[in-house]
Amino acid sequence: MIRSLCLTALLLQRIEQEMKPMKKILFSLIAALGLVAGSAQAAGGGMAWDKAPNKTNDLGALQNGAKLFVNYCIGCHSAAYMRYNRLTDIGLTEGQIKDNLLFTTEKIGDTMKATINPLEAKQWFGANPPDLTVIARSRAGSGGTGADYLYTFLRTFYRDDAKATGWNNLAFPNVGMPHALWQLQGDRRPVFEKVESHGQEVQTFKGWEQVSAGAMTPLQYDQAMGDLVGYLQWMGEPAQNTRVRIGVWVLIFLGVMTVFAWKLNGAFWKNVK
Known about the structure:
With 273 residues, the protein is an alpha+beta fold. Among the domains are: 20-47; 50-164 and 217-245, Cytochrome Bc1 Complex, Chain D, domain 2 (Orthogonal Bundle), CATH 1.10.760.10. It is 50% helix and 14% strand. The chain has nine helices and six strands. The chain has helices at residues 2-43, 59-73, 94-100, 118-125, 135-138, 146-153, 182-185, 218-236, 240-269, and strands at residues 79-83, 111-112, 157-159, 167-169, 186-197, 200-213. The strands form three sheets. A two-stranded antiparallel ribbon has the order 1-2. The protein has a two-stranded antiparallel sheet with strand order 3-4. It is extended, with a radius of gyration of 28 Å. The protein starts with a helix and ends with a helix.
């Protein structure tokens, strides 16, 4: 008995000694992850992203978002992995697509290509405007989802005469893109307040001052940007709602089958000792 206790004590001591390096590695990993998260937050400019409304199930919002995309975005930004005829999935007929969303030289089966010349775009903006097919999936970060980023980005442009385009953005400082939707939103300027933080005076964003009105009220513009972001979300994965719906039924099926399998297992082995 005493010998067994001694062996158990020695075994526990040996396990504790071997676990010490593992603890050091674990603490190092936790510290590294903390530094990475802090660096990502600092790189994001410190501005909190607004939560984007989820409109991927709202056909009316998706149709309005598609109209805004074609009218204001496709001049510079392509959606090269999306075909016009896929818009029938959001309730549009081929006739509506041809009459309202297609240029005269395009066909219903074509991909959504930008009309701008890539060489001219690079000369004007310093880089080719990115393709937006999966932009809502690729822009996710520590501040939220890609939809949150886009919803914040589209609503935080302001005049900046020091920039070549005349515009800047709070969510993407020094952006090379002009504000293509300024006629809808109007002209605004950010209001900052000086506060003391850690013994230093810093500027914090307090809100917006409307310099000139746009074609939409602030509420209407926010709703329109929600529609546009919802369309960009849908375009990144048109089958996402079907995938989620099927996934729910699969989980329900597996749950029911687990109960049957458990009962069958008990009935099969009940006479086995």
